[in-house]
Every structure is written in structure tokens, then in C-alpha cells.
What does this fold into?
Amino acid sequence: MLNPSTIKKIKKIVGSQNFSDLEEHRIVYSYDATPVYHQLPDAVVFPESVDQIAELVKIANEEHFAIIPRGAGSGLSGGSIPVENSIVLVMTRWNNILEVDVDNQTILVEPGVVTERIDLEAIKFNLFYPPDPGSIKVCTIGGNVAENAGGLRGLKYGVTKNYVMGIEFITPTGELISIGGKNFKDVAGYNLRDILVGSEGTLGIFTKILLRLIPRPTLSRTILAAFSSTIDSGKAVAEITSSGIVPSMLEFLDNTTIKCVEDYAKVGLDTSIDSLLIIEVDGKTLEVEDDQNRIKEICEKNKALYVSIAKNEEEANRLKSARRSAFSALARMSPTTILEDATVPRSKLPEMLEEIQKIVKEEDVMLGNFGHAGDGNLHPTCLTDERDKEKLRKAEQAFEKIFNAAIKLGGTITGEHGTGLSKKQFLELQFGNSGVEFMKKIKSVWDPNNILNPGKIFSIKPRCEGRLPKSKNDIKNFGEIK
It folds into this structure.
């Protein structure tokens, strides 16, 4: 626990009104959207200025406590779970849109801006911010940058990293640095921006983010294709993506997910089918119509039961909302819902779908599968109960097999959720010991005392640079979680 003198120093920096160590407040910030993991922080802090954040970081280095940056807490890898001897730095009040530069097609925002607001602001100028995570209505842009969030439109438009042009941030030793800018080309020095994007709050605390906007597409069409076989739907995806067509959305739902979504959202999905694809194409009118017709042909060639095209925007939005509600719909079905994401090359999607079906039978688990099939990113979701140790063990074994299968097929253990706590034990599978050790070296140089979100991605011991901790408890379990 933080000692009284440290608490006094923190309160002096941020003010008593922006500090709480009440248990009811600490509980709220002890977990995120990931099940199983939780840990009470010692305190919760709401900074009001860059200077306050910098001072807090300097005090953390001196007093040997950890700082956990946090946005809306919608993450799915345990990335914002506190550790022992830590404070949570809540950035949701930093929610201002600072500038829209129409000439340069950029938008400057604070990290606590809810992601949906960015595109709603861009619409006013006929511009477009494409990244759209499933939690777009609640997640914040700082968390999106920290996790390099993806979304439904990732296939055509890319993910968060493709739109970050600049970042202002506080380093783990308390310096304010600004990198990037509005230049379309900039290769001066090391590309620190791309190291920070996806760093999961371990290398810096974001205070401003400059994002690229693009012109809005003029027309879009939404297509639904139903299949009697999951493998056939996977083959259709592989053929669409190899045909030269680039849909703005190409989403997959299996039968378990379809049934849960229909029960939850009542959107009129056919619950008798094995799987379905929700596909969107956008662009100019002739291009959209041509892509739509070719996609229909490909789906029918791969044994689609039927292919339908949304008659209007309302119907299209209903279909897209069905996909967006998949996690919420599945979460209603069991006490514990573990949502993961494994990604494979798109050509390997049919094999990956087959592997997941095989693993489900082997481990006897209840699992719904959905995801961004167009970019090979699947979200196998296990419906279990953490109170039942045997069920939880089976779920863990199933996911271990799924991650191993993804790696064997040339894939990755995470396409968009991040490594966090939930997947750090699998990181070596993908990068080997040397790769993980090199990442640890980067962390150690940036954050010599390991005070910024320790224990995420991997665990390292703090380097105290000759200073002894005041007590064993000062650095107890730094970077570990119980």
C-alpha cells in the first residue's frame, strides 16, 4: 500500500478532489472488460494537466509505485488491470476535440474522447475516420492507440496505427515529448510513433493525439450470405479477398453466435443456418455495383444457401448492429465469457475455422465464433463459469490449442486486442525467447524503474538504478498479478 507521505505528495499535485482511495472507487477501477482478472489499486487519480501527470510520474519513480493509465476500461486483454502498489490514472475527463483541420484532413483530440465522436465530428466536414472497434460507442481514442485497435472496417481501411500522425505524451521518467505532425511525409529520426502505437500503456501516457481523416465514400451496399457449412463460408472469404475485391467489411458469425444475437437483438437472422457473412462494399457507384455482383457470384459458387442485399440504409445498419452486438449477446449466456482473438493469413481461414471446430469437440467447451473474417481475425468466445475450476481449465486448454494452431498457420496470438495479461504467456510462441528479450530491453531503457503499467505484455523486474526500495512491499510483485 502507498504510505501516508506518498499519498500526501500525490494529493498536493492533483488536489484532494481528484484523488480517491475509498474502496468503492478502487473497486470500480480494479477490472476491465476481461473476465477473471482483477486487482484493487491503492488509489484512483484524475489528473487535470500535463504538468500534474509529469509530476506524478516523477514521484512514482522516487517512491517506487506503479501508474496504470486508463481510459474507458473496455479492453479485452487485461491491459488496464492494476498491480499491487499502484495508482490508476484515469484519462476520461480529457475529452476535448481540439481542432479539425479540413485543409490537411486531420483532427487533434485528447485521449479521453470516445471514438465514435471522432467520426461524427468528421462527418460535418464530409470527412471520415474509419477505425471502428466493436466498443466504438464507449471506448476512448487513447486506449485505441495504446492497443492499436482494429474494427469492422479494418480490411479495406486499416487499423488505428494507419491514422495516427502525431502523439504528445509523458515518458515513464516524466518528460513531455511531441512526435509526428501534419506532414504527409516525415522520416526524421527513429519512428517513435509506431513504437508507441500498440505499446499498451507501458511506454508513455498520451495527452494529445493527431489523427488522419480521409474523404467519405459516396455509396455503400451491405450483403448477407448464409451457409450450411462454416468451412464453405471460410472458402468464400478466401476467394473474395484473393479476387481483387476489397470490401470495407467482411464479417463472420457461426451458428452459436447467430442464435445468441437473434435472441438478444431480434434483427431477423435465420437461426437455422450454420454460418453467415455480413459484407459491405463502398466507393463510387459503378465500382460498388460491380463488386456487389461479383461477391454474390463467389458466395453462390461456394455453396451459399442464399445471398441478399440490404434494401436501404436502415436494413444495412440493422445487419451491422447484429455483428456489433455479438459479444454482448454471447455474454448473456453464461456467468463468464472469455473473448479472444487469433488471426491467420486470409488464405488459411478455412483451415483455422476447421481447427477451432476440432478443438471445441476435443475440449468439450461451449464456444461461439465470430470476427473480421476478411482480414483473418477471428474472435473465438468461450462461454464458461470461472467458479467451476474444471470448466475454466478446459477453456484455458482450448485457447492454448487455438493460439498454437494460429501460429502453425503463420498467424498471430492477437490481431487487435493486445497481449496485456491474458496472452503474455503465449508471446514467446510467436517471437521466440530472443524476440521477447529484445522487447524487454526496449521497455527497460524507456522505463528504467518499471513504473508504467508493469506486468503487461511481459514481466520484468524494475531497475532501481542504485536506489534501494524503502521496504520489500514497495516493489512487491511489481509487474506481476495475483
Remarks:
- The chain has three domains: 4-90+439-475, 97-215, 219-408.
- Residues 101 and 204 are 26 Å apart (CA to CA).
- The longest strand covers residues 219-227.
- The two ends are 15 Å apart (CA to CA).
